[in-house]
Design goal:
The complex is a heterotrimer of chains A (about 325), B (about 325) and C (about 500). Chain A is mostly helical and about 325 residues long. The radius of gyration of chain A is 21 Å and the shape is globular. Chain B is mainly alpha-helical and about 325 residues long. Chain B is about 75% helix and about 0% strand. In chain B, strand 1 and strand 2 form a beta hairpin. In chain B, about 55% of the residues are buried. Chain C contains 18 helices and 22 strands. Chain C is of the alpha/beta class. In chain C, helix 4 crosses helix 5. The chains are: A mainly alpha (about 325), B mainly alpha (about 325), C alpha/beta (about 500). At the A-B interface, helix 5, helix 11 and helix 13 of A face helix 6, helix 12 and helix 14 of B.
Chain lengths: ~325, ~325, ~500
C-alpha cells in the first residue's frame, strides 16, 4: 500500500512537467515557428508579470490563504500612477506601485487575520472595492502609463527585455526571503500546522498579515511590468489575473492547502500558461478556445494538488503495528 | 414576563436586525433619494431582484455544505446561449412550441450538468470548491463566448421567439410570470431545506462533516446534490434574464457575482457552512437591491455603488468570521 | 563522575485543583542526576498534571520545585526549556513538510550576522548532523520529515530535545508507534543520556518497558504517590498494586449475568486484518452481553471499532450481524443493520455543536434509509426527540439550546439519545465517559446496563479498567492490533490488577 501511494505521489508531482512537455511537443510539430528562440523570448517576456504576481500569491498560498484581489490592486495602482501621482522616473513608479500594493495587502491581511473571515470572501470583497475606486477615479476612461514606464517596456539589456531582468530580481528577492529569513520559514510552518507554529514561537498573526502585504506589493509591481508592455489600462485591466497567478503557482507545485511551494514554481507555471496561449496563437486556433484550454490545464493542476495532499496525509498517519511495514 | 423572554429567544435576531436595517434604509432613501418612494420604482425594483433571489437561494445550498460556487453567474451565461441557440429564429435547431419546451428543459439540464461537474470535483476529487468553481467560471466564460461565435457573427444570439420571451415580461392575471417562477423556487427551496431529510443533511455536512459521516449521512452525495441544485437555480434565473433581453448572451449576469454572494452572506448564510435561512436570503437580496437602487437614485456612479457593495460584503464576511469564532469557543 | 550535593530535581508538596476538584494532593518527587525514573499510574492518576507543572504548562496551587538545588518556578514552557527541561510529548510536534534539519533548528535558527541576520543553512545542517548522530539516526538531514517512519520521527523529536542541551528530559509514552528495533535503539539512547548525567522521567503504560529501562519507579493514583522504589524491588505485581485502588462498587449498577450462552451471537467479527493496524481480530457478542475492549492507548481499540462500523476499510475478515456479513466501508449499512457507534471524539464526530439538541437527536434516523426526499415533520421529530431526551435524562434549559452550551455529560447523553432513535441492537461505545463528571458517569453506566438488560449487545471500549470491570461480561485484551486474550467475569484475573497486567505487562512492540 505504502509503495503504491509513494509512486502515485511521484507520478502526480511529475504531471505538470509532463503536460508542459506535451504542450511544447504538440505545438512544436503543428507550428515550427513555435520553437524559435525569438518566440521563446516572447513567451518569457509575456509571462513576466504573471510570474511576479504568482510569486506574490505564493506567500499567501503557503499559509493556506488566497488573494483574489490582486487584479484590482493592479488596476487601482495603474490608475493612480497614470493620473494622480506625478511619476518622474521608473524607480518612483515601482516604489509608488509597491506602496499602494502594500496598503492593499495590509487591509486584506488585517481583515483575514483579526476577523478570521475566509480569505476568498474578504479578497472577493476588496476586489470590488478596489476596482470600484479605480473606475471612480478614472471615470472609467482608459488611462495611459507615464513615459518612464513605457520606456522601460522598450528597454533591453544584452538583448534581454528589461522586464525579464525585473523578474530575475524579484525571483532572487522572493527566493531569498522564503529561504533565508525567519519570516519565510515561518510561512511554511504556519501553513503546515498553525497551532504547532504558535507553540514553536512563530509570530503567526504578524506573519499572516505580512504575507498579504507581500502579495499585494508583488501584484502592483507586476502591474507596472504589465503596464510597460500594454501601455494603457482600460476598465478591464488586471481582470482574471488572480486566477492566472493562482494557476501558475499551483502548476509550479505550490499547494492550495498550504505549507508547500517555491518561487521558481511560480515562474515555471507562468511560463507554462503563457506557452499554452502562445501555442494556440501560433496554430491559429479559434481565439475563443484559449480560456477553455488554459482553464482545463488549471483544473487539472488543482485536481493533482488535491490528490497529492490526500496521499501525503495518508502517508503521515501513524501506525499501530509498525512491524507490519517492515514485512 | 417570562413569556416575553421566551418569545424573544424564539425570534431570530439576525432576521430582526436585517428587517430593521431595511426599514431604516427605506426611510433614509425616501428622504435623500427623491423618486425612491414611487410605485414604479418599487415595482421595477421588485421585478429586478427576482433573478438575484433565485441565484442567491441556489448559492445558499452550496454555502450550507461549507462550499462555494463562484461559477454560478457563468452558468447563467452558458445556459443562456445554449438554450438560445436551440430556438433562435436565425437558424435555431428547433422550432414550434415543442422547441420552446425543450429550451426550458435545456436551461435546467445544462445548469444541472454544470452543477454535477462542480460537485464531483468538490465531493470526490476533494478540490477546494472556490478553486474548482473559479476554474469552471473561467472555462464557462470562455466556452459561452466560443459557443456564441459558432452560431452568429454578433456578440450574442438574438431573435428569440415571442412565445419564449413572454416569460420575462408577461403575466398571468395580475402576477408577472417571473414572480411566479421566483415564488415557486422559493417555496421549493424552503420545503427542501426545512421539510426533507436532505435539508438536514446539508446543514449536517456543513456544520460537521465527520459527525455527519458517523451518523450515516451520505456526505458526498449531499455535496453533489447541493451543487446540482445551485446549477439548476442558475438555469432558472437564466430563463428570466434571457427572456427579458430576448437574447442569449455569453456575458449574461457577468456583473452579478458579488451581489449573489453578498446577498447570501448579508442574509446570514454562514461561509463556514451549516447556517442559513430562506427568509434571511430574501431580506439580504432586498437590502442589497435597495442599496443599489437607492445609491443610483442619489446620483452615485455605477462604480461608487460597486465600491459600497464591496464594503458591505467585506463587513458581512467580517461579522460572519467573528460570529463563527465566538460560536466555536 | 562529579558528585552532586543536591538532586537534579526535587518537587515537594505539589498540589493542584481544577474547578475545586483536587487532582494532585501533595506530590513529592526526587530525581538524581543521571537517573531514569519510571512514572506510572492509571488514567486520572495525575501523571500528566504533574508533568505539565514541571514543564511550565500549568502552575501549581501549592508546593515548591528545585532544579539542581536552585528554586525553580517556571512562568511558561519557554522558562522550562531555558531551565534545561525538555518535554517530549506523545503527540509529535514536527512539521512534516519541512526537512529534518530545519525541524531541529526551527525554534532558534542559527544566523549569519547576529540576531537579525539571515539563516545559516550550513550551520543548520551541521547542527542537525550532530543531533542525529547523538540519537544514532543515520538519515540525511535534508529529507522531509513526512518521508520518515513514525519511529524515526520519534527519534528526531528526541534529537530536537537534545539540541537544547537539557538537564532533564520527560518522555511521554515514547514507544507506542515504534518497531521493536526502534525501541531497542531508543533504549540505547536513553542509557547513553544517563551516562551523560542527564535525568530522565519516563512515562509509560507498558510496564515491561518501564522495568527494562528505568532505575527507579514511582507510582501515582488519584493524585497521591502510592509507591516508590528501585526497579529491583518494584516487581510488576507491586507496581500494579500501587496503581489499583479500591473500586467504587456503588458506582456501577448490579448486572445479572446474561442468559444461556448457546444463543447465536448478535455481532460476530472474524479474522479482521488491516496492514499496519490490525491482525486477525475476532470476537462474538451475544444478545444482552457487554463485551469490554481493553488495551493501551495505540493498541488499536478505536481502529477496530471504526472498522466494525464501516468507517474505515479492512484488508480481510468479516463483520456479521445475526450471521449475515456487512459490506465493509459503509457506515449506513451498519446503521441499517442496527449498529450504533458512540465515537471517542465527541465534539468532532459525535455531535454537531453549532446545532440545537432537537436538531441533533433525529439525525441518524433521518440518514438511515438514505432517502434524500423523505418527508420530515418537525413537530413530530421534536416530540420524539424530547421523549428520548427525557429517557436519557438530558438536562438543558430547552431542547432548542445549542449543544455547544451543554456540559460534557449532557452532550454525551445527546449522542446516546441520537443513537437510541434507531432502536439499535448493537451499541459500540468508545470511551463513553471521557471528560464527564462523576454524576453523569453514574447515569450513563446505569443506562448502559439497562440497555443490555433489554437485550442490546454492547461493545465497550475504555481506558479505565474499573469501568470495564464494572460493566462487562467479558473483556477482550488488545495489544498492537491483535487479540491477546479474553478474560471472563468468572475468571480470577477479572480484577483491576489482572487487566492491568494483561494489557501492559508485555512491552510494546515485543
Amino acid at each position: 500500500m505504502t509503495l503504491g501511494n509513494k509512486s502515485a505521489l511521484i507520478a502526480l508531482r511529475l504531471t505538470p512537467v509532463l503536460v508542459f512537455v506535451l504542450i511544447v511537443a504538440m505545438f512544436g510539430t503543428m507550428a515550427p515557428r513555435f520553437l524559435s528562440l525569438q518566440n521563446g523570448i516572447l513567451i518569457v517576456s509575456n509571462a513576466t508579470h504573471i510570474a511576479i504576481i504568482a510569486m506574490g500569491m505564493t506567500f499567501v498560498l503557503l499559509i493556506a490563504g488566497l488573494d483574489l484581489s490582486v487584479g484590482a490592486a493592479m488596476y487601482l495602482s495603474a490608475v493612480l500612477i497614470a493620473t494622480f501621482v506625478p511619476i518622474a522616473n521608473l524607480p518612483m513608479a515601482f516604489a509608488v506601485a509597491a506602496a499602494i500594493g502594500a496598503v492593499y495587502g495590509l487591509v486584506n491581511g488585517a481583515l483575514i487575520e483579526y476577523f478570521r473571515a475566509p480569505p476568498f470572501i474578504v479578497t472577493l470583497g476588496t476586489l470590488f472595492v478596489g476596482r470600484g475606486i479605480g473606475l471612480w477615479l478614472s471615470d472609467t476612461r482608459t488611462v495611459f502609463f507615464p513615459e518612464a514606464v513605457l520606456q522601460f517596456g522598450r528597454d533591453r539589456m544584452f538583448g534581454i527585455p528589461a522586464s525579464v531582468l525585473v523578474l530575475l530580481v524579484v525571483f532572487a528577492a522572493v527566493s531569498f526571503i522564503l529561504r533565508y529569513t525567519a519570516f519565510g520559514r515561518g510561512l511554511y510552518a504556519i501553513g503546515s500546522n498553525r497551532e504547532r507554529a504558535l507553540r514553536a514561537g512563530v509570530p503567526v498573526g504578524r506573519y499572516v498579515v505580512l504575507a498579504y502585504v507581500a502579495c499585494g506589493m508583488l501584484a502592483t509591481i507586476g502591474g507596472v511590468v504589465s503596464g510597460s508592455q500594454v501601455a494603457a489600462a482600460g476598465a478591464g485591466y488586471g481582470e482574471q489575473k488572480e486566477f492566472w497567478a493562482i494557476a501558475a503557482a499551483v502548476l509550479g507545485g505550490t499547494s492550495l492547502f498550504g505549507g508547500r511551494g517555491r518561487a521558481f514554481g511560480a515562474i515555471f507555471g507562468a511560463i507554462m500558461v503563457e506557452t499554452a496561449s502562445n501555442g494556440l496563437v501560433m496554430i491559429n486556433a479559434d481565439p475563443y478556445a484559449y480560456p477553455i484550454v488554459v482553464s482545463a490545464i488549471i483544473l487539472l493542476a488543482v485536481a493533482v494538488d488535491a490528490l497529492k495532499t490526500r496521499i501525503t496525509q495518508k502517508l503521515e498517519r501513524r501506525l499501530i503495528r509498525p512491524n507490519d511495514a517492515l514485512a | 414576563m417570562p413569556n416575553v423572554q421566551a418569545i424573544w429567544r424564539g425570534v431570530d435576531r439576525h432576521l430582526v436586525s436585517l428587517g430593521a436595517a431595511i426599514l431604516v434604509l427605506a426611510l433614509v432613501l425616501c428622504v435623500v433619494a427623491p423618486g425612491f418612494a414611487s410605485v414604479t420604482t418599487l415595482y421595477d425594483m421588485a421585478l429586478a431582484l427576482l433573478p438575484l433571489l433565485i441565484l442567491a437561494l441556489g448559492l445558499m445550498f452550496v454555502l450550507l455544505v461549507a462550499a462555494i460556487d463562484l461559477s454560478i453567474t457563468a452558468t447563467v451565461a452558458m445556459t443562456s446561449v445554449i438554450a438560445a441557440s436551440l430556438i433562435t429564429r436565425n437558424g435555431g435547431y428547433l422550432s414550434g412550441e415543442l422547441g420552446i419546451v425543450i429550451a426550458f428543459v435545456s436551461f435546467i439540464l445544462v445548469g444541472a450538468l454544470i452543477g454535477l461537474a462542480n460537485g464531483a470535483m468538490a465531493a470526490y476529487v476533494r478540490m477546494p470548491s472556490f478553486m474548482a468553481t473559479l476554474g469552471t467560471y473561467l472555462l464557462l466564460g470562455g466556452a459561452a463566448v466560443w459557443y456564441t461565435s459558432l452560431h452568429t457573427s454578433s456578440s450574442s444570439i438574438a431573435g428569440l421567439p415571442g412565445a419564449f420571451s413572454v416569460v420575462g415580461r408577461g403575466s398571468v392575471g395580475p402576477f408577472p410570470i417571473a414572480l411566479l417562477i421566483a415564488a415557486a423556487v422559493t417555496v421549493l427551496a424552503w420545503l427542501l431545506v426545512n421539510r426533507t431529510a436532505f435539508g438536514r443533511w446539508l446543514a449536517a455536512v456543513g456544520s460537521g462533516q465527520e459527525a455527519a459521516r458517523v451518523a450515516g449521512v451520505p456526505v458526498q452525495f449531499t455535496i453533489l446534490g447541493a451543487f446540482v441544485i445551485c446549477g439548476v437555480c442558475a438555469g432558472v434565473a437564466s430563463i428570466i434574464l434571457t427572456a427579458r433581453i430576448e437574447t442569449g448572451s455569453p456575458v449574461l449576469a457577468s456583473n452579478m457575482l458579488l451581489d449573489v454572494v453578498g446577498a447570501a452572506v448579508i442574509g446570514g448564510v454562514s461561509l463556514y457552512g451549516g447556517v442559513g435561512k430562506i427568509g434571511g436570503v430574501i431580506l439580504g437580496v432586498l437590502l442589497l437591491t435597495m442599496l443599489d437602487v437607492g445609491l443610483r437614485l442619489m446620483g452615485m456612479s455605477l462604480f461608487a455603488v460597486l465600491t459600497v457593495k464591496g464594503l458591505v460584503i467585506v463587513l458581512a464576511a467580517a461579522i460572519d468570521g467573528l460570529r463563527n469564532r465566538m460560536a466555536r469557543r | 563522575m562529579i558528585k552532586q550535593a543536591s538532586p537534579l530535581l526535587r518537587m515537594s508538596g505539589i498540589k493542584k485543583s481544577f474547578d475545586g476538584v483536587p487532582v494532585l494532593k501533595g506530590i513529592d518527587l526526587e530525581l538524581a542526576f543521571g537517573a531514569v525514573k519510571g512514572f506510572v499510574g492509571g488514567n486520572g492518576s495525575g501523571k500528566s498534571t504533574t508533568m505539565n507543572i514541571l514543564g511550565g504548562v500549568l502552575k501549581a496551587d501549592a508546593g515548591r520545585m528545585e532544579l539542581a538545588g536552585a528554586p525553580y518556578d517556571p512562568a511558561g514552557p519557554t522558562d522550562a526549556r531555558t531551565a534545561g527541561i525538555s518535554f517530549i510529548h506523545q503527540e509529535l510536534n514536527l512539521f512534516p513538510n519541512l526537512s529534518v534539519a530545519e525541524n531541529l533548528s526551527l525554534e532558534d535558527y542559527p544566523r549569519i550576522g547576529g540576531q537579525m541576520g539571515v539563516i545559516d543553512w550550513r550551520a543548520v545542517r551541521s547542527r542537525a548532523g550532530a543531533a542525529l548522530r547523538s540519537v544514532g539516526l543515520s538519515i540525511s538531514p535534508d529529507v522531509e520529515v513526512s518521508s520518515l517512519t513514525p519511529g524515526e520521527q520519534q527519534l528526531v523529536e528526541i534529537a530536537k530535545a537534545l539540541t537544547a542541551d537539557p538537564k532533564l528530559i520527560i518522555l511521554d509514552e515514547p514507544t507506542t508507534s515504534l518497531t521493536s528495533r526502534e525501541i531497542d535503539r531508543l533504549f540505547g539512547i536513553v542509557r547513553e543520556l544517563r551516562s551523560r548525567n542527564i535525568g530522565i522521567i519516563y512515562i509509560s503504560h507498558a510496564l515491561a518497558d518501564v522495568r527494562e529501562i528505568c532505575d527507579e519507579i514511582i507510582v501515582l493514583r488519584e493524585g497521591v504517590v502510592t509507591d516508590e522504589g528501585d526497579v529491583h524491588s518494584m516487581v510488576t505485581d507491586r507496581i500494579v498494586a500501587g496503581m489499583v485502588g479500591r473500586s467504587l462498587e456503588q458506582v456501577f449498577p448490579r448486572r445479572r449475568a446474561p442468559e444461556a450462552r448457546d444463543t447465536p451471537p448478535r455481532l460476530s467479527v472474524k479474522g479482521l486484518s488491516k496492514r499496519g493496524t490490525a491482525k486477525d481480530i475476532g470476537f462474538d457478542i451475544a444478545p444482552g452481553e457487554i463485551l469490554g475492549l481493553c488495551g493501551l492507548m495505540g493498541s488499536g481499540r478505536t481502529e477496530v471499532a471504526r472498522m466494525v462500523f464501516g468507517l474505515d476499510g479492512y484488508d480481510s475478515g468479516t463483520v456479521a450481524v445475526d450471521g449475515i456479513p456487512l459490506r465493509p466501508r459503509n457506515p449506513r449499512e451498519a446503521i441499517k443493520r442496527g449498529i450504533a457507534f458512540l465515537t471517542e471524539d465527541r465534539r468532532v464526530e459525535g455531535v454537531h455543536l453549532q446545532q440545537s439538541i432537537v436538531w441533533n437527536i433525529p439525525l441518524v434516523r433521518l440518514s438511515k434509509e438514505g432517502r434524500a426526499l423523505a418527508w420530515l415533520d418537525p413537530s413530530r421529530l421534536a416530540a420524539e426527540a424530547s421523549e428520548i431526551a427525557r429517557r436519557t435524562n438530558v438536562k438543558a434549559a430547552s431542547l432548542e439550546a445549542l449543544v455547544s452550551t451543554l456540559s460534557g455529560g449532557n452532550q454525551q447523553k445527546v449522542v446516546i439519545a441520537k443513537w437510541l432513535t434507531l432502536s439499535p441492537s448493537i451499541l459500540i461505545l468508545d470511551e463513553p465517559t471521557r471528560g464527564i463528571d462523576i454524576g453523569a458517569k453514574v447515569e450513563i453506566y446505569a443506562l448502559i446496563a439497562e440497555l443490555a438488560e433489554q437485550g442490546m449487545s454492547v461493545l465497550l471500549i475504555s481506558s479505565e479498567n474499573e469501568e470495564l470491570l464494572g460493566l462487562s461480561d467479558r473483556v477482550v485484551v488488545l495489544e498492537q492490533g491483535e487479540v491477546r486474550e479474553v478474560i471472563h467475569r468468572a475468571d480470577d484475573r477479572f480484577t483491576e490488577a489482572g487487566l492491568t497486567i494483561a494489557s501492559s505487562a508485555g512491552g510494546s512492540g515485543r
